[in-house]
């Protein structure tokens, strides 16, 4: 036993940097504020993926972590999504790692991750996926209740050798349970029809204003569409948005406006948040304004075509100019200014009194 004890200590100490710096497999991949893509390889039966088979596929996932260690993981891969699953040439995927394997490696058991992939195989696709990634990154700057994302340069290798390798830009979204754990919260499994007063006012207004920033009409708190809900330690709820490809921020050619909430173009901003106290609304707006430089810097640093970058930069800048003008106008409630011409439209499934203001 004494003979092997030094070797055991060496092995344990070699694991300390890994355990100290990463508690999940997502942490091994995550590069924080660095928006460079991490190179990864997914080996899977491409026939099944391209055919959008509903069955889970056995796969292997390989990458080099921040410590320079090569990571090889067995996992299950499946097709996911609704609209993109049916309309895209290459559907988005879900990764499901083995909890047993994660535990054996000293990692937490957060095992399910969404991979967001280009919808089509053309020159425009990479720009669209990059802009959607940037929406999540901007969300990270504006709200703590947002999914972390990691940009990837992913190479697909056909396990059966029938298809050539293909490499593209994609990004991975962290597990909802992992996001909840970071806030000592828990996911609300069924959030359909929860009352407006159940939500933390600041968290709700922050989420709604972010959706307004990116020009998203394709979400709903009453219908629990395109969002997750966390129950915070104080019992209040916090919405967490996702799926931003139908936004003016991304500008996907297949996206359409959400007519039932008054949106006539994906580039038209509609405010779908609940009525909140004016002082709170203005505090949230001020917190957004304080992040203007950082949000625009994200766009400036992005690997986008110069025309795409300029269009996105102008779209984001218009938001900050508008919110600054509205916030400086104390004669009208900020909520009423944001609702504007859509003030009389009550989103489907919602209670009218959660959206209608008497004004000043």
Quick structural summary:
This protein has 360 residues and is of the alpha+beta class. 36% of the residues lie in helices and 18% in strands.
Description of the molecule:
The protein has 360 residues and is α+β, with helices and mostly antiparallel strands. It folds into two domains: 25-178, no CATH class; 185-354, Phosphatidylinositol 3-kinase Catalytic Subunit, Chain A, Domain 5. The protein is built from twelve helices and ten strands. A seven-stranded mixed barrel has the order 1-2-3-4-5-7-6. Strands 8-9-10 form a three-stranded antiparallel beta sheet. A hairpin with a 5-residue loop joins strand 2 (57-64) and strand 3 (70-79). Helix 6 (123-142) runs antiparallel to helix 10 (292-301), helix 8 (201-214) packs across helix 9 (278-289) and helix 9 (278-289) runs antiparallel to helix 11. The longest helix has 23 residues, at 306-328. Keywords: Signal. Residues 1-22 form the signal peptide.
């Amino acid at each position: 036993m004494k003979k092997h004890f030094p070797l055991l200590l060496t092995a344990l100490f070699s694991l300390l940097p890994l355990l100290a710096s990463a508690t999940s497999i997502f942490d091994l991949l995550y590069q924080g504020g660095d928006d460079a893509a991490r190179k990864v390889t997914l080996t899977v039966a491409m026939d099944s993926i391209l055919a959008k088979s509903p069955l889970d596929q056995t796969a292997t996932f390989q990458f080099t972590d921040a410590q320079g260690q090569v990571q090889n993981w067995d996992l299950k891969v499946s097709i996911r999504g609704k609209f993109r699953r049916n309309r895209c040439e290459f559907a988005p995927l879900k990764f499901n790692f083995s909890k047993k394997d994660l535990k054996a490696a000293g990692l937490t058991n957060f095992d399910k991750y969404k991979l967001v992939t280009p919808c089509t195989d053309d020159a425009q696709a990479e720009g669209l996926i990059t802009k959607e990634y940037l929406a999540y990154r901007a969300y990270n700057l504006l709200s703590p209740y947002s999914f972390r994302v990691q940009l990837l340069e992913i190479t697909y290798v056909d396990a059966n050798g029938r298809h050539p390798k293909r490499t593209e830009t994609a990004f991975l979204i962290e597990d909802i349970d992992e996001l909840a754990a970071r806030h000592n919260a828990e996911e609300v499994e069924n959030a359909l029809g929860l009352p407006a007063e159940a939500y933390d006012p600041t968290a709700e207004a922050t989420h709604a204003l972010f959706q307004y920033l990116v020009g998203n009409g394709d979400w709903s708190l009453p219908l629990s569409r395109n969002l997750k809900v966390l129950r915070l330690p104080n019992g209040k709820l916090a919405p967490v948005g996702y799926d931003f490809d139908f936004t003016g921020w991304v500008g996907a050619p297949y996206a359409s406006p959400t007519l039932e909430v008054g949106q006539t173009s994906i580039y038209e901003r509609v405010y779908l948040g609940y009525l909140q106290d004016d002082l709170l609304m203005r505090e949230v707006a001020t917190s957004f304004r304080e992040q203007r430089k950082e949000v625009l810097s994200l766009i400036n640093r992005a690997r986008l075509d110069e025309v795409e970058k300029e269009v996105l930069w102008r779209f984001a800048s218009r938001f900050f100019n508008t919110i600054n003008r509205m916030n400086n106008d104390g004669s009208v409630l900020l909520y009423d200014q944001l609702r504007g011409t859509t003030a009389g439209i009550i989103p489907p499934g919602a209670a009218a009194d959660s959206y209608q203001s008497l004004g000043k």
